[in-house]
Amino acid sequence: MPGALDTVGSCCLQFGKKTYRFQRLEELSRKKKMPIFPKISLRPEVENYLKEGFMNKEAVSASGKETAEKKFETLLNRLSHPPSFTTVRVNTHLASVQHVKTLLLDEFQKQFNGLSVPVLQHPDLPDVLLIPVIGPRKNIEKRPCEAVVGAQCGNAVLRGAHVYVPGIVSASSFMKAGDVVSVYSDINGKCKKGAREFDGTKVFLGNGISALSRKEIFSGLSELKGIGVRMTEPIYLSPSFDNVLPSYLFLQNLPSAVVTRVLNPQPGEKILDMCAAPGGKTTHIAALMHDQGEVIALDKISSKVEKIKQNASLLGLNSIKAFCFDGTKALKLDMIVDAEGAPPFSPESFDRILLDAPCSGMGQRPNMAYTWTLREVMSYQPLQRKLFSVAVQLLKPGGLLVYSTCTITLAENEEQVAWALGTFPCLRLQPQEPQIGGEGMLGAGLSLEQLRQLQRFDPSTVPSQDTDLDALRDASAEDMIRLANKDCIGFFIAKFLKWKSTPEKDLQK
Prior knowledge:
This protein has 509 residues and is α/β, with parallel strands linked by helices. It has 16 helices and 22 strands. The strands form five sheets. Strands 14, 15, 16, 17, 19, 20, 21 and 22 form an eight-stranded mixed beta sheet that branches. It has a six-stranded mixed beta sheet with strand order 8-12-11-10-7-9, covered by helices on one side.
């Protein structure tokens, strides 16, 4: 009798003549293993600030101090590791999900030399495909020839990327093209560019084949931008999406695909994406609308706006208009007629608004070292409120506003919801569909009913676990989907209905 995954297609992992199947989520969760990477490194004042939020009076009263503290420590450990699944969104405007899934299976066969990796279609997000990440693999032999990369490059490698030349900070003096190289991440940014060796804090990422010699890498030629090390034995085995089906796929974290579904854009509507770069959610909005209607995308950095336009063109979406404009100034304060639909905009002119707000980004994974100061972290709350106030005024009565962040702080999430409900009586919190994340966190004075209407994606709900080939056992598709839903980046979503026009006195707040 076939296993449950056989109904999904290419459901088991085959390596040589042996077949390994995924161990059930419940069994994986019971494993108590030391994480292969250290917990995320934070400045002491930032860690204390974050801890105070997670161990607030409401939370400690509900679960107890020991449980709250354990949850916080688990979160810090999970943030330094990548999610258990790579998530890609299919551009259904140009191709069917099944067609793209077939193309991906063929691609992975080539990448992994015959290793068959499952590709699962998410039941609640029909245009989303999930690919499991195998690891951490602990039997990879370290080589004498080393390359050290910056932290951002290292994070990308853990998500399946190869090492590009600009990311290489240090290389052994004897490194030649074609050498097997052990790649390390300089998580604290202490390695000097061009160093021949580095004895500081570094984290092993796996092995690869050098495409260039040390001399070529550090020749000073600014045009060197290609692959410097092609990863062949990464600690986390995850497919590379470099130039893979670029018109059909958008590499996107799972909660980022959820937030657009929560917005639920409809054909013919006028929709605003206030902080849109690089355009993943913008293009998703347009695709869900069948490219019928008007999607306005704003970002105040011109290079990012060009990226939005490039992505829209690549994905064949014509309903998107991208502008280089500061969202805090997007409300028109005079009666001058719009210039070809460009910002600023008249009050109450959008059917739906997505405010995926600039934030402290503390939910991103993997991240082994967060270097921002407490002042930088706390600077986002007032900016988010400025953007939110403009969004409320731009939204039509009966319209929907979705607020989201990729951070985990109470101040930028639940506290913002409490502030919004107290500041704008014209807003009502709405239930979300699909509801995939957990409920909101205690501590902002919201009722239990209000917390249930929020979505907080919290990596601490899944203990550290190994998903290597030797550990894999039987698993149903449901188990894997459940794991993918929980073991993703930290993220937050709130949905509001504007049930009446904004009173004049509220516009000044």
